[in-house]
Amino acid sequence: MIFIGILASIAAIGGLCWLLFTLAVFALPFFAGVSAGTWAYQTGAGWLGAIIVGLVGAALTLGLGQFLLAIIRPLWIRLAIALAFVAPAALAGYHATHGIVKHTMPSDTWQTIFSVIGAVAVGITAFVRITGMAAATGPSGRSLART
């Protein structure tokens, strides 16, 4: 029975890590949506209005980011937009890794080291996914970002 519990724990941690790496790209839209929804709720919109405003805010943030990455030509501006999406993802990776290693090792120094490694890994993954969205190719095989 203990063996099954260990395997289930490893599977759960693997599933959560996969979810973190998959959803890291959406950290900025999620934050924008939560902020907009909280603002709407505090101004008296109610639960339903706050949820709708939050969803619209998150969708607009993601859509605007993808649109700007596809349209803007200067590389330094595209890099700044990509970093705006990567920074919250790296921060989420740091905290997620820190939450896991906090329970597995007593040394604060090693907790920080592994948390930074997790932040870098999630940040690189988010950057690759963001740039992959920007470099989508069309039917002609040419990059849509360059046309």
What's the β-strand tally? 0
Low-confidence stretches: 137-141
* Fraction in beta strands: under 5%
Count of helices?
A: 5
Average pLDDT works out at: 86
- The coarse overall form would be globular
SSE succession: HHHHH
Distance between the termini: 59 Å
Biggest beta sheet summary: none
Alpha-beta classification: mainly alpha
Instruction: Determine the fraction of residues in helical runs and give it as a percent range.
Output: over 70%
Radius of gyration: 19 Å
Q: Could you explain how this protein is built, in words?
A:
- Helix 2 runs antiparallel to helix 3 and helix 2 crosses helix 4.
- With 147 residues, this protein is mostly helical.
- The longest helix has 27 residues, at 75-101.
- The chain is globular and about 50 Å long.
- It contains five helices and no strands.
- 24% of the residues are buried.
- The protein has helices spanning 2-23, 27-42, 46-71, 75-101, 108-134.
